[in-house]
């Protein structure tokens, strides 16, 4: 069965520091991969996605992620954290590519930004 | 475009009561889905639909029913509410580039 593992339920970084949120997945076929952000009491907003093509994908708000097939990883990074980045981040996979079986989500990482 | 809308925003039910969570989208997306979000669990797929008249079960379908009579609407029915169904429910629709657009959520408490 497919699964998504996000390492660290809470990650704390200083404002201006590098943000690195880790995501590993298991899938028997090339997956489609997503990162979503959720601000308190709101729905989920798509940050970026990987479907095919270039393995380094850029998203909104300065975030980017790299698909590494050999490591089954899709880590999210941002060079310089801003206070407004404090939120819950979810990695998700559609394990059958564009199939109809929905998204499998990781359990989320709460990003804390220290002033 | 309003995107994906959900009503109500909040709901309190007693055990055994039934209710319908409404979801609508105005993006003409064929694919729609329902998720529940519980602390420390991420989001889990309840039911999904690939078009009007077609629905299927996700990871946690028990206790929920869905139907899809139009492209725009995808209601979720709780047949007999249980405390284990206390959760935040999100409806989503999927675009042609496979990104999913989420509604603002319905926070449900079952006492």
Q: Keywords, please?
A:
heterodimer, A: 115 residues, mainly beta, six-stranded mixed sheet, five-stranded antiparallel sheet, B: 111 residues, four-stranded antiparallel sheet, 11 strands, 0% helix, globular
Quick take:
The complex is a heterodimer of chains A (115) and B (111). Chain A has 115 residues and is mostly beta strands.
Architecture overview:
The complex is a heterodimer of chains A (115) and B (111). Helices cover 0% and strands 54% of the residues of chain A. Chain A is an all-beta fold and 115 residues long. The chains are: A mainly beta (115), B mainly beta (111). Chain A binds chain B through residues 4, 9, 32, 34, 36, 42-46, 49, 51, 90, 92, 94, 98, 100-108, and chain B through 4, 31, 33, 35, 40-45, 48, 50, 56, 58-59, 90, 92, 97-105.
Structural shape of chain B: globular
Percent range of helical residues of chain A: under 10%
Please state roughly what percent of the residues of chain A sit in beta strands, choosing from under 5%, 5-15%, 15-25%, 25-35%, 35-45% or over 45%. over 45%
Q: Give the uncertain stretches of chain A in residue-range form.
A: none
Specify Rg of chain A, calculated over alpha carbons.
14 Å
Most extensive chain-chain interface: A-B, 25 and 26 residues
Oligomeric status? heterodimer
- As a percent range, the share of strand residues of chain B is over 45%
Secondary-structure class of chain A: mainly beta
What's the helix count of chain A? 0
Distance between the ends of chain A:
41 Å
* Tally of DSSP β-strands of chain B: 11
Mean pLDDT of chain B: 94
Main sheet makeup of chain A: 6 strands, mixed
Rounded to an integer, what's the Rg of chain B over CA atoms?
13 Å
Q: Measure the end-to-end span of chain B.
A: 36 Å
The biggest sheet of chain B, with number of strands, parallel, antiparallel or mixed sense and barrel status, is: 7 strands, mixed
């Amino acid at each position: 069965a497919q699964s998504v593992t996000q390492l660290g339920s809470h990650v704390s970084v200083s404002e201006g520091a590098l943000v690195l949120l880790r995501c590993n997945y298991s899938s028997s076929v090339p997956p489609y991969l997503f990162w979503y952000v959720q601000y308190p009491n709101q729905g989920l907003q798509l940050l970026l996605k990987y479907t095919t093509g270039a393995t380094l994908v850029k998203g909104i708000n300065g975030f980017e992620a790299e698909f590494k097939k050999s490591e089954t990883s899709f880590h999210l990074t941002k060079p310089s954290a801003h206070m407004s980045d404090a939120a819950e981040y979810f990695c998700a996979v559609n394990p059958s590519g564009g199939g109809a079986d929905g998204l499998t989500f990781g359990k989320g990482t709460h990003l804390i930004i220290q002033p | 475009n309003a995107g994906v809308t959900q009503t109500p925003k909040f709901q309190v039910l007693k055990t055994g009561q039934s209710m319908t969570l409404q979801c609508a989208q105005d993006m003409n997306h064929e694919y729609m889905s329902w998720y529940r979000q519980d602390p420390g669990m991420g989001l889990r797929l309840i039911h999904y639909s690939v078009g009007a008249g077609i629905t299927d079960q996700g990871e946690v379908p028990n206790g929920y029913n869905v139907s899809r009579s139009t492209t725009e609407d995808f209601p979720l029915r709780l047949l007999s509410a249980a405390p284990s169904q206390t959760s935040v429910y999100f409806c989503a629709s999927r675009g042609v580039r496979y990104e999913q657009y989420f509604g603002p959520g319905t926070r449900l408490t079952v006492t």
